[in-house]
């Protein structure tokens, strides 16, 4: 949802370890994060502050770690990967290792997928060693819908109550 | 009866009188029925410092008040504050509580009760303070444990869990079970 990033983020886990030497706080065992409609589920998760942005970044690891969010359209966006890096301020999501993304039915598989939940931009990259590809599957009706939406929104500004043609 | 024997007699009689008096006082004490155990020695605004073999500062303890009971070989503190220096670290960990006890069999173990708070001086990341109801402090291995609920406060977040193990040498604080936490929204 739009205001997910403005919500408090809550965590539950079996145990937590604070490592003051390396300024790292990690959670272990059935780790669940909730922030608004965003849910992340992983085996292990550490909260680190990002050097560049200074933002609080959560690095979740799992077999795979999963991410889900209810999109503004009401549909469910899900993602999974062995390593999910989530910046709770900018909304950047970096999925690494067997990454899969399913946003409102359009699926994507790649080694690494970057996805921003604010503007829903996606970039995907294969591992580059040649034996894996980025696969994108856009179901037919989504394609039609996306085209109609572009036609409609370009013709007249989106009104609050939009009747389905 | 030369002077020497006279001196001996006088000496022994005074010794006997003194001894007899002390016995009397002891007798009174017991005679008065169950006596509230009085400490054998007390100290106020206590401050003691310990160094390790290499001469580095190992730990410091201050307390508002201290009582030692020889019969039970127990030492009680009020408002004890411990500073523990982990290996190779110059900034100490500060542990304070309302009450503290040293045990007879192992004076390297301290039990701290009520409003126990732990903080790493000079280190505000990732944890600012840890508070719980009671802890057992092991001054030899520089570790601290409890099975009570533990509350951690950090920069923009707080968390809690059941049971704690803190190791001051490798500077780790671990919550053992049922951990929940909240990170404040970034307004």
From TrEMBL, chain B:
One of its GO terms (molecular function) is glycolipid transfer activity. One of its GO terms (biological process) is Gram-negative-bacterium-type cell outer membrane assembly. Keywords: Cell inner membrane, Cell membrane, Membrane, Transmembrane, Transmembrane helix. Gene3D superfamilies: Lipopolysaccharide (LPS) transport protein A like domain (2.60.450.10). It is found in: Cell inner membrane. InterPro entries: LipoPS_assembly_LptC-rel (IPR010664), LPS_export_LptC (IPR052363), LptC (IPR026265). The lineage of its organism: Bacteria, Pseudomonadati, Pseudomonadota, Gammaproteobacteria, Alteromonadales. GO terms for cellular component: outer membrane-bounded periplasmic space; plasma membrane. It is a single-pass membrane protein. It comes from the Bacteria. The gene is lptC. Component of the lipopolysaccharide transport and assembly complex. Interacts with LptA and the LptBFG transporter complex. Signal peptide: none annotated. Required for the translocation of lipopolysaccharide (LPS) from the inner membrane to the outer membrane. Involved in the assembly of lipopolysaccharide (LPS). Required for the translocation of LPS from the inner membrane to the outer membrane. Facilitates the transfer of LPS from the inner membrane to the periplasmic protein LptA. Could be a docking site for LptA. HAMAP family: LPS_assembly_LptC. This is Lipopolysaccharide export system protein LptC. Belongs to the LptC family.
């Amino acid at each position: 949802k739009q205001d997910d990033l403005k919500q408090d983020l809550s965590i539950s886990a079996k145990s937590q370890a604070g490592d003051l030497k390396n300024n790292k706080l990690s959670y272990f065992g059935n780790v669940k994060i909730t922030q608004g409609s965003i849910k992340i589920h992983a085996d292990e998760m550490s909260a680190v502050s990002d050097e560049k942005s200074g933002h609080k970044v959560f690095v979740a690891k799992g077999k795979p770690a999963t991410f889900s969010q209810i999109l503004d359209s009401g549909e469910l966006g899900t993602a999974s990967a062995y390593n999910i890096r989530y910046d709770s301020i900018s909304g950047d999501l970096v999925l690494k290792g067997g990454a899969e993304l399913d946003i409102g039915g359009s699926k994507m598989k790649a080694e690494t997928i970057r996805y921003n939940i604010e503007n829903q931009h996606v970039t995907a990259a294969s591992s580059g060693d040649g034996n894996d590809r980025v696969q994108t599957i856009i179901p037919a009706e989504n394609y039609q819908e996306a085209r109609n939406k572009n036609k409609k929104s370009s013709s007249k500004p989106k009104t609050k109550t939009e009747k389905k043609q | 009866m030369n002077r020497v024997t006279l001196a001996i007699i006088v000496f022994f009689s005074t010794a006997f009188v003194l001894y007899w008096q002390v016995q009397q006082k002891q007798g009174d004490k017991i005679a008065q029925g169950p006596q509230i155990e009085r400490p054998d020695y007390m100290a106020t605004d206590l401050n003691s410092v310990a160094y390790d073999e290499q001469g580095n500062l190992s730990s410091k303890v201050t307390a508002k008040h201290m009582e030692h009971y020889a019969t039970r070989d127990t030492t009680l503190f009020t408002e004890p504050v411990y500073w523990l220096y982990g290996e190779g670290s110059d900034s100490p960990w500060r542990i304070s509580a309302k009450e503290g006890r040293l045990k007879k069999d192992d004076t390297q173990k301290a039990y701290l009760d009520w409003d126990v708070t732990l903080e790493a001086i000079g280190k505000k990341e990732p944890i600012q303070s840890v508070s719980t109801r009671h802890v057992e402090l092991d001054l030899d291995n520089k570790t601290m444990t409890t099975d009570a609920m533990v509350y951690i406060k950090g920069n923009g977040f707080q968390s809690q869990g059941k049971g704690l193990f803190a190791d001051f040498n490798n500077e780790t604080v671990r919550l053992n079970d049922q951990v929940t936490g909240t990170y404040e929204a970034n307004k």
